[in-house]
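REQUEST FORM: STRUCTURE PREDICTION
Request ID: SP-0412
Submitted by: Lab K.M.
Chain count: 1
Length (residues): 341
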Amino acid sequence: MPGHVEVQELVKHFRTFERREGLWGALQNLVVREYKTVAAVDRISFEIRPGEMVGYIGPNGAGKSTTIKMLTGILVPTAGRVRSNGFEPFRERSRYARTIGAVFGQRTQLWWDIAVVESFRLLKKIYAVSDADYAARMREFNEVLEIERYLHTPVRKLSLGERMRCDMAAALLHNPPLLFLDEPTIGLDIVAKENIRAFLKRVNREYGTTVLLTTHDLSDIEELCPRLMIIDHGRLLFDGGLAELKRQLWRDTTVKFDLKDREQAQRFEQLEIPGIRREKLGDLTYLLSFGRDDRPTADVIRQVVNAVEVLDIAIEEQSIEEVVKRIYLGGMSPEAPPCNP
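STATUS: Completed
RESULT:
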C-alpha cells in the first residue's frame, strides 16, 4: 500500500574493530584483532499508516539514521522485517526507490557543479515525470519554497538554506507517497525553517504524503508531527502523541502568580501550603510547583487567591525538550512497553 510502512522486530548489528592503545597495542593489532558486535537497532517494531507525519527522535548514536537507512534500502537488516510501499526495501531497491523521497540534512542529491535546474531535469528523466507534471510541480515549489531565483546557480554556490529548499523540491519532484527526512532543518535560520515546515504541511495536506522525520530540533516535531517515536540505544522507548508523552513523564505542575503589591507578596511569603515548592521570580512574581498527582491544581489556586490578591495566574506546561531530556536521562525504562497511538 502506498505510504504504508510496517516494521517487525528489526535488528541491525555492526561488527567493530577494537583498537589497542599505544605502540605495543598497535603492533598487537597487526597480529591479533579483537572485534565486538554493536546492536545499532535492537528489535524495534512499529507501523506508519498512509498520510501520517511521524517524528523519530533520539540522542546521537541512538539508531535513528540506521533505521532510516534500512527503511530506504541502503542498509540490509541483520534480522527482522520491513515492508514499505508494498516493497521489501533492500531486496527491491531499484523499483522501491521510485516510490520514495529522501532528504538528508548534510548530504545533497543534487549534482554539485551544475545548475540546480539541470539537476531537476535529470531527475525528471530518471523518474519519468511528464512535462505537464514537471511544470505544475515546479510552479508549486516556487510558490512555497521560492526556488526560481536559484535555478540557474550551481549547487556548490548555494547557502545551506537555499540548498535545502532545492533538495526538498528534488525529493518530491516525482510526487512520492512516502518521504524520509533526516535532519532536514539542521543549520537553517528561523525563516528557512518556517518555509520548509509550511511546505511539508502543504504536501501532506494536499497529497496525503506520509512523512517520517528525524530531527534534533524538537520544534519541528511540535509543528509537524502529531505522533512521536523515541529511540535510545537501539530500543524503541515511546510511540504515541505528545500529549501522552507529557502525561507519562510530566510529574510536576507549575503555576505562576503575579501579585498586586508588596503587601500581598509578604502575605504570600507567609502562606503555608504543604508539599509545595516555591520560587521567587521577581518582586511580585512567584512560581509554585507540586506533584501533579499529589493534589488538584484548582485546590492550590483556590488556596492562594483566598489568601492574597492576585493580578494574573498562568499554568505553565513543561516543554517537550524537558520531557525528552528526562527520557534520555533514564526517566522511561527501555524495558517498559512502548505506548501505541
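NOTES: The domain at 5-99+176-246 is CATH 3.40.50.300 (Rossmann fold).
Reviewed by: T.R.
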